[in-house]
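P.,

For your records, the input lines for the assembly:
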Amino acid sequence: DAGITQSPRHKVTETGTPVTLRCHQTENHRYMYWYRQDPGHGLRLIHYSYGVKDTDKGEVSDGYSVSRSKTEDFLLTLESATSSQTSVYFCAISEGFEQYFGPGTRLTVT
Amino acid sequence: AQKVTQAQTEISVVEKEDVTLDCVYETRDTTYYLFWYKQPPSGELVFLIRRNSFDEQNEISGRYSWNFQKSTSSFNFTITASQVVDSAVYFCALMIPYGGSQGNLIFGKGTKLSVKP
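Structure tokens returned:
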């Protein structure tokens, strides 16, 4: 158990509204990641962080922003949610060269 | 560019059969890591194995075994005497441990395994 929690676990929101997903870890890991999982695509990296206030874009970063003001929290924000952002979102931490995932957040944008 | 291909979208077997899940990767880097993850119907992602590019030894863990062949860029996963609890989606992934995207996982699209009693 890598001590990763995600909140909320499920969310339904309307197109155009802002949404923030939270990833929280308890073991002081430096690297944190946000992925999205969609049928037929596997998991794709959205953004990652390599320390407090240090973040970078992944493969599918358009429409998303992130922030990390504390080691333990990595926030993913959809500034104006669209239906194409309906997905399951996973947070991960890196321990050595192994990544461990949180339980996921299922987001539905109607 | 890096890429992971899992050509088998879905596999269905009967309990106690052996099954092999294929994974082919592409990278020009000489240092990399390969991974397998399991996603059961409950949805969480479970780490199964990590293998580095300099270690081509096969690995066995109980009913699970992995065959890494650099010559064919493959990292296949075999389940011996499958059980219903093995039903899940299995993902193969590649990581380049340095550079701009250091530590980011590149996933295949997954293989859904159904084991029927």
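Two observations worth noting. The CA atoms of residues 68 and 74 of chain A lie 5 Å apart. Chain A touches chain B at residues 31, 33, 35, 40-45, 48, 50, 56, 58, 88, 90, 92, 94, 97-101, 103-104 (CB under 8 Å).

Regards
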